[in-house]
Amino acid sequence: MKKIHKIAIYSGSIPSTTFVERLILGLSKNECQIYLFGLLNKKVNYNSSIKLYAYKNTKSYKAFYLLKYTLLLLCFKSKDKRKLDNILNSKSQNTLLDKVKCYPVLWHQPDVFHVQWAKSLEYWSWVQDFNIKLVLSLRGAHINYSPIANATLADSYKTYFPKVDRFHAVSKAISKEAEKYGAPPNKIDVVYSGLDLKAFKSSSNPENPNFNIVSVGRSHWKKGYHYALDACKILKERNVSFAYTIVGAKDYLEVMYQIKDLDLEDDVVLLKSMPIDEVKQKIQSASVLLLPSVEEGIANVVLEAMASRTIVLTTNCGGMEEVVQDKINGFVCPIRDAKAMAEQLIKIEKISNAERESILDKAQRKIEEQHTEAQMVSNMLNLYGKVLNEERV
Q1: pLDDT, tens digit, for every residue of 253-267?
Q2: Residue 64 CB coordination number (10 Å)
Q3: Secondary-structure class of domain 197-370 per CATH
Q4: Is 250 helix (H, G, I), strand (E, B) or coil?
Q5: Is 5-194+373-387 CATH 3.40.50.2000?
Q6: How far is Cα 350 from Cα 199, in angstroms, rounded to an integer?
Q7: What is the model's pTM?
Q8: Residue 1 confidence (pLDDT)
């Protein structure tokens, strides 16, 4: 009988991001048991292949949780407990909360511990001392600019990246960045984010007379909204009629001031973050999904727009050109170039219905070829197979 491997997907928070949750559910339908450790933020209902070992953020629950796993380890794995305690003491990870986080992992001892955020790598490096394979995901901010801004983090990466058993990179561009910190190229697998294509409607409407531009993302400098607003000012000066909506940037003071300074108060709307179904509706009703970012891995919102048959304009940041090809399945402009962004928006506003449909067809085909949930899960299973020395066919 084939062994069922135990794979821990660790992001620290349960439930996690859309990508991580999609991965968890997809993997659970295959020949592995999924373990989830971390802080439980709200009630979740998973299938029987997903084992949840989470703590709640109350003193009484954490005390009970710690007592439970302390007793289990003392009674049945006392030698391992002493070893882990020594490691945690040496790394100054010896608080009660550290033990709440680490003891359950030692007790359940998965075959693979897959850390989702690079900044957490050093914290969880101890799992390798207990024959647990360590896999690390490489994502945008954690690789592209965090180690540049933080020399201590960069040094940590250079120390621990060479020791990781296997890496999951969300794009080829991210894998190249990780190599600068010592990630061995032969241990990096590029696994693109996958979508459940049945969840996306094709609702493009080229005859819509309004030119509606939509961006989606949190209030952060890396999202490049300042450049998008400068591009909007150019559109207004060119007498292009448009409406620009930014979902997730409500009360972003710097952007609000810029909107006022550029006299765009009648043209730009800032909305708060909203549920994913409402975001999908905004994307599907847009004339163009604009990603003005200066840094990304591969933005899921672009994949969702392409799957929804909405035209995409993205900057050439990170791995975006691995998905969007200029004037073939979308449009691309340089980062931090408001004039080029405005020129591309004007081209999109004037595009013929026939050209639009051709671009949307190719965009949808790209998602089907490279970004399905089934492909993501299969490629991740292959990655785990490699790290466990069981190459999948």
Answers
A1: 999 999 999 999 999
A2: 13
A3: alpha beta
A4: coil
A5: yes
A6: 30
A7: 0.89
A8: 35
